[in-house]
Amino acid sequence: MHRHIPTASFLNVRRHQCLYLPPARRWRSSQPTISEGTKTPLPEAALAQQPKSPFFFDTGYALYAKRPSRPFPPPFLSMPSGSFSDPLSTHNRSRDRRSYVNGEMIRGITNGDDAVLVGENFIGANDGVGAWAHKPRGHAALWSRLILHFWALEAERDASVTSAASTSVEPDPVAYLQTAYEHTLEATAAPNEWQGTTTACAALLHHVHEAASSEPLLYVTNLGDSQVMVVRPETQEIVYKTTEQWHWFDCPRQLGTNSPDTPHANAVMDKIKIREGDVVLAMSDGVVDNLWEHEIIQNVHESMQRTTRKDHKEAGGDAQEADGRMLDVAKELVKAARNIAEDPYAESPFMERAVEEGLAMEGGKLDDISVVAALCRRRSG
Q1: At residue 99, what are phi and psi to the nearest 5 degrees?
Q2: 363-375 burial, b for 16+ CB within 10 Å, e for fewer?
Q3: Are 348 and 290 in contact (CB under 8 A)?
């Protein structure tokens, strides 16, 4: 997200000073391919935990960065060994290229200034404000990733999230986000002093006990203009979507340096009853600024139809247990959004909003594009 960053006098900044308009000419990213996967990495201790929830996400993600992600600075990333006397072991931290904070591997994956996290019951997409790259101690990607890491960590540690089907205890994702925000402030304070801001958007899959059975219940938390959307493929309809939060056009609510926004004061949390087979999407604004809602629905439906037909053929008709459907959904959405983003003559949602604001603009909006797709499923047994 290449947005204007908050200043110390953020609340007094005039509207036109926070506007950003992409240039008429589109530059293609130096990253020609789309990164993809099914789940983001977890440390061994987290992988060893036995799930108790009756529902889980079958997931896939796809990422496209308009420019390569900046490496994390020390102490979040260990520098490579520079001495022949250092231990020549991949277990030695001097040779470990993974990112750490407070001794723990940082959850999630960075995509430009975006960050995504993909788990069995928690998915998220944060969008760091890229303008911090022009500041001496600015690092939006670090902020977006740390917020998401600490947020997921709080969800993991709360027993109510992974409790048995008969539980009546509710999770509190806004409280988790508030704690994540405070931990990120501490981690980026002196002596490190790394500045940045990010939007925050995530979905937590829980359940409710009704009529002697459990039904899936989705907790969606949003601050800013990334989006969680729930699509029902069988009827090709949007069951739910988050509402964008802006201070003004192209200046979303954001967490971080100099921003007045906080999770407790500004995050919005909704509880949505969903069904098995519903698709939950967590997307950065690189998707929703370039694709209309009907295009997102169409892409999801066509991807699932195509993959299901393939799975029926390869698995003898047992498409219910087939893998890869959500990966295909995520990849196709990223491809579609990228095509519009790089087209200077395309009509896009962002262009329409700009015109409504009285601004001259055409084409898509070149941005980092991140998609997490998650299919709600019941755990067998």
Answers
A1: -95, 145
A2: bbbbbbbbbbbbb
A3: yes
List CB contacts of 196: < 8 A, sequence separation 6 or more: 128, 129, 132, 138, 139, 140, 141, 142, 143, 144, 188, 256, 257
- Residues 141 and 198: their CA atoms lie apart, in Å, by 8
β-bridge pairing 55-64 and 369-378:
antiparallel
Of 24, 22, 15, 23, residue with least CA distance to 249: 15
Within 10 angstroms of residue 360's Cβ, the number of other Cβ atoms is: 8
| C-beta separation of 67 from 29 below 8 A | yes
pLDDT tens by residue, 104-140: 999 999 999 999 999 999 999 999 998 898 898 999 9
| 29: amino acid identity, one letter | S
- Please report how many Cα atoms fall inside a 13 Å half-sphere around the Cα of residue 292, on the Cβ side: 9
Buried-state track 250-268, b at ≥16 Cβ within 10 A, e below 16: bbbbbbbbebebebeebbe
Q: Which helix (H) or strand (E) holds 297?
A: helix 293-314
Model confidence at 31, in pLDDT bands (50, 70, 90)? low
Q: Is the dihedral of CA 220, 225, 226, 227 positive or negative?
A: positive
Q: pLDDT tens-digit profile of 297-336? A: 999 999 999 876 565 455 444 444 446 899 999 999 999 9
Question: Maximum CA pair distance of the chain?
Answer: 66
At what angle are helices 173-187 and 140-157 packed, to 10 degrees? 130
Phi, psi (deg, nearest 5) at residue 169: -85, 135
Coil, strand, or helix at residue 369? strand
Query: Rounded CA gap, 378 and 381, in Å?
Result: 9
The residue written with tokens 């020549």 in the block is: 88
